[in-house]
Structures are given as structure tokens and as C-alpha cells.
Amino acid sequence: MTARTADLVVIGAGILGTACAWRLAERGLNVLVVEQSSPASGSTGRSAAGVRAQFTTEANIRLSQLSIEEYAAMPESGYRPAGYLMLVPEAQWPMHQAGVALQRRLGVPTEELTPAEAQVHAGFDPAGLGGCTFCATDGFVDPHGLTLEYLRRAREAGAHFLLNTAVTAIRRSEGVWRLTTSAGVIEAPQVLNAAGAWAGEVGRQAGLDIPVQPARRMVFTTGPLAPQRQVPMVFDLASGVWLRSEGERLILGRADPADTGWREGMNWDWLEPTLEAALLRFPWLETADLDRRASWWGYYEVTPDHQAILGRLPGADGWLNACGFSGHGVMQAAAVARVMAQEAVGEVPFIDITPLRFERFEQVVSGAADIQV
């Protein structure tokens, strides 16, 4: 059987894979995207859709900042600058203030607020807080709309998509990657692993150790609120509880650090611990009803330091990663796509992604450097 050929194969058609396909095809590369299901059917489609530039490292700030700017210029993104309010415990406040200073230096309009001043955005119990931050350009988007628009642009630029196509084996031979799929064999000198929660498994098919594993996350949905209240994305750093308005309702969640691996379905046992933590900070939630049918679950793709893995993989010629975002994929997809296109054609990325490269894990093992979190 004659193998199908391409300059670069992207594995995954979520928001990262489709955005990368567009930017790569723009560069004149013959791009083929392989997706085991349909576009945005994995983590992208089940995202809570928040976007924020409130990070503490320059790479993450710029990736999110420039992505949000792109989304704001795309009607298909559904971008809504509803704001993002961070409730910061006393012990974390000095480090958080340093992050705010860096954000402002890079042009992100983050405000420092006292807990009393932050009450205008959302009511909460201020116990134990050192301060709050709010950024009006943070907010949320429509991940489905974005993914389909990136797919359209990628096709228009010449990229091809194989949907509902499983990759069953990957090996390197004579300078090319050979992918065995349910639609036949594909050969390309470069592969971009944008497989989300499946990125670790994709690596293992190629004999590579990509430290990405799935982690299940719950999104609980209330019924319509009475009286109605519009709440920006609020994240309580002390408890890990987050919430925001979704129309007349609220969606909320809290990561369960033990819920890793391929577990499917709603974990209703996690509802009580989530609500207990949420009610301590947001007592007014006691009057809200839960809509079980509107609640959902999805996978995060997590790494040991909860940071993305970007760029070429050392020791694996032609293998690139854009995975492991640990909940930041939708936030950063637009800028990551531009970075990965530069990486693929041998240019220096316009954002320094050194802290997010795979080599940071090797440095930790050797004791040469600390992971940047």
C-alpha cells in the first residue's frame, strides 16, 4: 500500500491542533491533521472556556495575552471580556503582587484590589485573603466556534484533515515518521503532538516518554439564579474553587488532584467537597439549585509542573509537542500556533518558550535547574 505523504502531521483536531494547522499551512507546508474523533470533541469541547493573562511568568503571560488579542478580533470566538477575579490568600499575596507587576510591564491591565474593593465584582467572605486582582480583558470564549473557524482557515490555506481516524502505531524510519492509522499509512518528516489528554499515549506509540496524563474535571451547573447576578470568572486560590456566570446560571468547579487516569462520567461524590469549599467563600450559593443534567465533565492534560510542553523533543528528530497545558490550552492556542509554526520551519519563536520546553524535566532530574511554575 502506498503511503500518504505530508510535510508535517498534526495529531489532534482540538483548538490547538486546528490553530497550529492553519499557521503551519500559512507557511506553505503540506499539513495533514489526524483526529480520532471529531473536531473539539475532547478537552476543547468540554472546557469551561475561561481565558486569562494573569500568570506569573512571562512566557505564559504573553501566550495568553496575544491569544486573547487574536480572539477579540475574531467574531467566531464568542470572546466576552467579563473579567477574571483572583482571590489571593495572605501567604501568596507578595508573590502574586510580583506577578501583577510583570503583567503590567507587559501591557496587561491587571488591577490590585482590597477584598472590600473587589466586592463590586462578586460577593465573597474575605477571611484569610491578602488581596485580590482583577483584569477586565480576561473573560471567556466559545471553544467550539474557535476550533471550527481555525479548521476552516486551515483548510482554506491548504491543510487536509482525516477525521474519525485512529493512529495505531508510530515509528521513525529513514528520516521520516511513519504513522499507521485506520485510514492507511502516512509518512512525514515532522509530527506535531497536539493530542491533548492523549498526548502521553501518542508519545508511547512512538517509543517516547511525554509526561502528560489525563485528569478528570467536573463542571457543576446551577439552575437559573433568583435574583439573577452576573459574576465574572472568580478563582479562590485558597480552596481551588472557581465559578462564573453562564447566562442566568453559574458554573463552578474545583480540581480533585486524585482524579487522574482514564475515568469517565460525572463524579457526583466530588460535589459535596466542592460545595463545602465553595460555601465557605461564597455563602450566597446556599440558595442556588443544582442542575445535574446541565453539569458535565472533561479531561485536563496535566504535566508534573502543570505547565505546557512546547517545541522540539530532544533526541527525536522531527517530533514537536504542543500539549500538557493543564487547563490553559484554550487560553493560549492562538499564540502557541504562531510559535509552533516558527519552530517547525526553523525560526526562533517570537515568544521565548524556553521555560516550557521539554528540557526542563531533564534539568530537574540532573539538578541543573528548577522548574519554573
UniProtKB/TrEMBL annotation:
Q: Could you say which EC number(s) this protein's record lists? A: 1.-.-.-
Does this entry carry the keyword Glycoprotein? no
| Domain of life the protein comes from | Bacteria
Q: Which keywords are on file for this protein?
A: Oxidoreductase
Q: What class of enzyme is it?
A: oxidoreductase
Matching PROSITE patterns: PROKAR_LIPOPROTEIN (PS51257)
One family name in Pfam for this protein: DAO
A GO term for molecular function: oxidoreductase activity
* Annotated FAD dependent oxidoreductase domain residues: 7-342
| SUPFAM superfamilies (UniProt xref) | FAD/NAD(P)-binding domain (SSF51905)
Q: Supply the InterPro entries for this chain.
A: FAD-dep_OxRdtase, FAD/NAD-bd_sf
- The answer, when asked if Metal-binding is one of the entry's keywords, is no
Q: What is this protein called?
A: NAD(P)/FAD-dependent oxidoreductase
Q: What organism, scientifically named, is this protein from?
A: Deinococcus hohokamensis
